[in-house]
Fold:
Amino acid sequence: MIPRDMAAPALQDPARAGAQTGAGPLAFASTRALEREEMLDAPLRWPAASRLRAPLRAPSKRAAGGLATLGLASVGDLLEHLPADSRAASTVAGLGRDEQATVSVEVRTISARPVRRRGMRPLVQATVFDATATMRATFFNQPWLVARYPPGTRLLLHGKADGRGGFRVSHHALAAEIGTDAQAPHEVAHYPASEGITSTQILALVAEARDALADVTEPLPGLMRAQERLPTRTDALTAMHFPREAEERADARERLAFDELLLAQLVFMRRRAAREELRGAPVLDEPAELTARWLEQELPFELTPDQRDAIALLGEELARERPMERLLMGEVGSGKTVVALYAMLRAVEHGRQAALMAPTETLAEQHFATIQRLLGSEPVALALLTGSTPAARRGDVLGKLASGELSLVVGTHALIEPDVAFADLAVAVIDEQHRFGVRQRAALQQRTPERPPHTLHMTATPIPRTLALARYGDLDTIALRERPAGRPPVETVLVGGEAARADAYQRLRAELARGRQAFVVCPLIEEAQEGEAGGVPEPGLRAATAELERLRGGELGGFELALLHGGMRARDKQQAMAAFAAGTAQVLVATTVIEVGIDVPNATVMLIENAERFGISQLHQLRGRVGRGGHRGVCFLAGPEGSAGSARLRALAENDDGFALAEVDLRLRKEGELLGTRQSGAAGELKVARLPDDEHLLARARSCAEGIVGADAGLRAPEHALLAEALHAAASEPIPG
Ligand code: ADP
Ligand code: MG
Structure:
């Protein structure tokens, strides 16, 4: 039995919530996106041990809801639901005033206090003790505990000490259920809980299912486990749930993280091996007349060395029969379109077709315009196809795509409508590929299944190398790191106090006086509004509407100010943007809506309020909005007194390279400064492993996976049978989103 009525918030560790993760999601090769068809020819089927398959029985309806929310249906699911951390149980003598603690005690006396008022349920008071001292524990609203916890019962209590020998209990469980010894101090596992079920309740359920841990299969070949000095999976899971000491738990977590990383690497390597075998893509290997002429005569600038390298590499891959599948990473403005256009023109000069698909109409239109400009006087038939292409025009484009008359097309999802057919699609480019679903990307690639096109995926989100290896290990990537000549990095100044703030306004006004324009970015729209993360409104956060008024009557009095935020009506937003674009508004006071789509070359200054509340990559993106004309941009990152010491803000001031910043971001992410980092949504792909901390494990897992795939890619050897099973189970996981 498990105590009912444990409605208080569960024991959990908020720091864990955003512990791993990094740059934006790239679903098409992630661990979780293992496709169902990824079947292994596992030679044998072990009957899964029945104790693990047994359905989980919840102690109450409410708890059943909680278990369902956590996705826990079977005993096996429960045993794989790992605690977020464990904490040493406190001793009674060591409890401080107002300390939240877990203690392991024995009941000496227990009684209910009489009810005084109607509607009030009695308190239960118990005298409890451990080896160090005695205290008075108070339970609320659970009169039945008097009968349930008679003197002599050993209990695990969580709650708050008052420092005067009293203890308000928020969660409790029988020590016998947890399987702990009441005498000695020990570690207590804390689980990610959910509405309806607490960590202590989960621990009790795990304790009840403890015997089933013996049925957990060991996927690693014995030799590998010995060489890697890893505990068995059963031992590791046992130590996670019932740690005797923190160190044992750490070893256990490493073992489980190793499994997770190894399985992912196996999937990546097997998938890569399978892709190496693919054939049938158009071989684009004729001497390159059009592209050679275009590169020499039409391009109005010199290619950067990175662009040249990328073009050379793509040239080689397009000349193969194996379909290219490559990710081109480069920040906004790094010149990806030129590289993509090169690949597309290779198709055109072979008399074949190419298509570029972008996630929004605006982006598609921008690409269309850029490509037209970049093509110069080359007579290449090019069309734009989006949701707002008029029907007649659309019919014309579809006809010409089907006949092959049209060799280049730029568009949105409109390109993958069922009635769009290509005569001979040889190169597909997918921009901002993470904004498309797996199926949408495949839809473009599979227009001609018998003749798969070469595919270039593009992203403006730099992915740190460690993360790329762990989560997208099967991808070929290439990066454009340098920015094209002519655009100096944005000068970034940390403003961590009133004097610095005054200087910042001084410079801002000087720029305005010179005819330039400025952004002021605030984290909130209205002062009473909740924080972006949906929490309680916090004091000290600046709101755009109030800041506009404040600046008008203060530091920026006499200048033309306009307001822009997501809560405004579309017409008002457009008006504000138009005024800023035309220069009639000198300063745009805005929320982070300006991150996307605003391109005003005359804007040279940005002041970001509460910069400490934004993520590194978001700040980096934001500052990229200034200094886009010939004039150098300056970005002030304003925060509270002392914020200039923040490692994140300093990294921004010192670094202009998005790739370097992505690495820093990954390393600092543990600080838990998560507001505004939309990437945090990508967390959870790796459940146990934490990067970059587990980098060494990743390296070991990769080398083990290489060894296995090199020797036995099909996992047919008897010693790999259970590994094949584990891989199969991981690959059959439903694909999220
Ligand atoms: P991305 O797609 O990576 O955001 P684009 O390819 O649109 O970047 O390039 C951004 C701008 O820089 C475009 O106007 C483009 O013409 C220009 N550009 C690209 N490569 C170079 C280069 N090597 N030198 C100068 N300007 C370049
Ligand atoms: Mg672009």
